[in-house]
Write a structure and sequence with these properties.
10-stranded mixed β-sheet; 28% helix; 20% strand
């Protein structure tokens, strides 16, 4: 299955409905983001980490990112964010910054990989992804590639690279972006774990009170 979606309005409503239907059936989908193609399921799907890890042919112990529609939706998943985390949300969301935060103790049985104490959250600068998260809830996602291999730049190649079938493939054109920058906000001061779409210098400027 395929559809088309752009990073800004207007986007293909048929593609949205197709993706919604697959996610509601607990099926993974390949979708465009503001960085690279991802593969995602609803965060509330049982065994979400195992589903995505099988598609990537890697261990399910690795942590996965959660994509949200807004900072408000992110707060439903995390413990009280620090002032540094709130500053980074305000400066870079929507955008290519993933924040590692303390998971809410009462979050329940979300299967997101890792040890269950933290959660990596991102609000992407892609209206299609935010629309899905707004309608259905947060999405757990990872790049659409086999473990250790580069992420393909087209939807069809991304789907073919995975180790199993998906419920829908949403075509967002050629995506040649870089992964998000990952910042660990559980430490004081926060640490840049991976430099990606936002330079580490920009992160530190915000943390130090710059622009």
């Amino acid at each position: 299955m395929s559809g088309n979606a752009a990073g800004a309005e207007p986007f293909d409503r048929h593609a949205v409905e197709m993706a919604v239907a697959a996610l509601q059936r607990a099926q993974p989908i390949v979708l465009p983001t503001d960085t690279v193609y991802g593969v995602a399921v609803l965060a509330s799907t049982g065994g979400a980490a195992q589903i995505l890890s099988r598609l990537k042919a890697r261990s399910s112990e690795q942590s996965l990112a959660v994509l949200v529609a807004s900072a408000e939706q992110a707060r439903s998943l995390i413990d009280q964010p620090s002032s540094a985390a709130r500053s980074l949300m305000a400066a870079f969301w929507p955008g290519p910054v993933t924040l590692v935060l303390r998971r809410r103790p009462d979050l329940g049985g979300f299967d997101l990989g890792g040890d269950g104490s933290t959660i990596g959250v991102r609000c992407p600068d892609h209206v299609f992804v935010r629309e899905l998260a707004l309608r259905l809830g947060p999405l757990v996602a990872t790049s659409a590639n086999r473990h250790g291999q580069p992420t393909p730049v087209t939807a069809a190649e991304a789907a073919s690279a995975l180790a199993g079938p998906v419920g829908a493939v949403v075509d967002g054109g050629v995506l040649g972006g870089v992964p998000s920058t990952v910042v660990d906000c559980t430490s004081d001061p926060p640490r840049v774990l991976r430099e990606g779409g936002i330079a580490a210098a920009q992160i530190f400027a915000v943390l130090e009170g710059g622009s």
